[in-house]
Amino acid sequence: MSAPAVEFRQITMRFGEKLAVRDIDLTIPRGAFCVLLGPSGGGKTTLLNILGGFLTPSQGQVLIDGQDVTGVPPAKRATTTVFQDYALFPHMSIAGNVGFGLKMRGVSGQERTRRVAAALEMVGLAETAERRTHELSGGQRQRVALARALVVEPAVLLLDEPLGALDLKLRRQMQEELKAIQKRVGTTFVHVTHDQEEAMAIGDEIVVMNHGAIEDKGPPERIYLKPASRFAANFMGDNNVIEGRVSAAVEGRVTVETALGAFTVDGQAEPGQTAALSLRPEHLQSGAGQGLITLGTARVLEAGFFGTHHQCTAQLEGLDSPLRLRLPQKQSPSRGDSLTLHVDPGDLVLLTG
Amino acid sequence: MHGSLRHLPAFLYAGLIYGFIFLPVAVLVLFSFQGSRVPVPPFDGPSLAWYRAVFADDRMMAALGNSVLVALVSSTLSVVLGFFAAYGLARHRIVLGGLVQGFLTAPLTVSYLIIAMGLLITFNTLGVPKSLITIGIGHVVINLPLCFAILYSQMGAHQAQVERAARDLGAREWQVLLLITVPMLWPALFASFFLAVTFSWDEFIIAFMVSRFEVTLPVEIWSMLRSGLNPETNAVGSFVFLISVALFVVLDMVLRRRRR
Prior knowledge:
The complex is a heterodimer of chains A (353) and B (260). Chain A is of the alpha+beta class and 353 residues long. Chain A is built from 8 helices and 19 strands. Chain B has 260 residues and is mostly helical. Chain B is built from 12 helices and no strands. At the A-B interface, β6 and α2 of A face α8 and α9 of B.
């Protein structure tokens, strides 16, 4: 049993003329917490619906635990879903909701009661078994939906923007709980969100999607620090992308000519092609230091205090658009200030896609 | 004092409207308790003699039984057919679905007289004898669109999502219908059934035109009225009215409980 939990092979989904996802090849290892991240219309929810069996792809195959399930309806798949609006059964008690999937599988009597109680215990709602869904808060309903989906021990749990309706504080708390529960049960989770902070907080593996295609996939740190495309660089956190042209490429080192000068970074590219450099706001520094190169003098356009840091935009001479900066908490920049910006060339990332 | 004077025209106006609407009914009910043979002032009751007469009248009681039977059977049929039509149209993409929906609700805009004439011609052409069955068919024709419209409006995106969740957890189609869709729609099913019963209960034109020997209560009352007003007609009229009010009260209670 070494087959991956989920495998998409050449999945394409058309709605009339519109291509919702195209040529997706994706493997999700067993026990992973995989996050499909992207803007709305990016194809992530379509891909989730194909995995859950709610949509049949126009082309391609879906495998769960090595079995081809492309044409198998949701009821017969080893997947369950936590829906965005929870979709709890309003006419049943909490225990009735959680026990529904077991009832459908013919689990009855004490066995069902025991498993329902265990599932409610896991999400911290052991006391609410006899209550009705409308008596619970949004966060509690979310937990019931999670318990209801997990109690049947699916091979893959699908989460369709499950935290979207919660307020920020509760969302952060639920992210931690989701992560902890996933580690405890070991089930493969596939989670859809458009919130990149949420993706980084919970995902072992992030799949960045846009226009129905995968832009980048990998662990959060890798995607943040070495994004594979311009889209991934911009979507995962704040970023500065400086356009340029490759002037030389030798043995895995590429020199890119930009409006700020020539920089040599790691990567593969053909001389003459257009390329860009990704420069994270927190990598721009106003003080000189060892190994840093000077980019030039910038004028602060706007500055705001964000608690852990100051967020600014500053216009650097020679650049068309302003740069985003993150300056230390104790430095208090104000509008009109002049800053000399420095950067460690090792922090620059080549973007060709 | 000043305030209540200012509101006087409003109170007068409201009083006139309510008087206009309810006075005839009040007079009808009042003179059903008349002591003598003619239901005109002066009132010389109260007496329950005419109610006793109604309940002792075999033809009247037969008509009452027919009315109840037609109302229950035709309403059940309307709800069941309306439910499946609504479920089909709300949950499946159907070729020309909009047109099908239009045809289903169109009878709501047609007058009962036209429907009755159409049914009469159809039954005559097909050689279907006039009976309680033809009345029942007529009442399904008028109530099915209503039940369909009520049930369809309740099968929105949220309910569809809940049904999806049930399928996702392993429920088969019949289990989704039986364990999710019907229980969730229970108030709407109940409301449309009661509304259908109410409309069938005092429907006259269709019942009159497509019936012959077995008639419903409104038709029986009408034939009684041809021989002139008497307190017995008032009594049976009051009875019909009372049942209608009771049905509406039950309906209202169901809808209220649901809103809570």
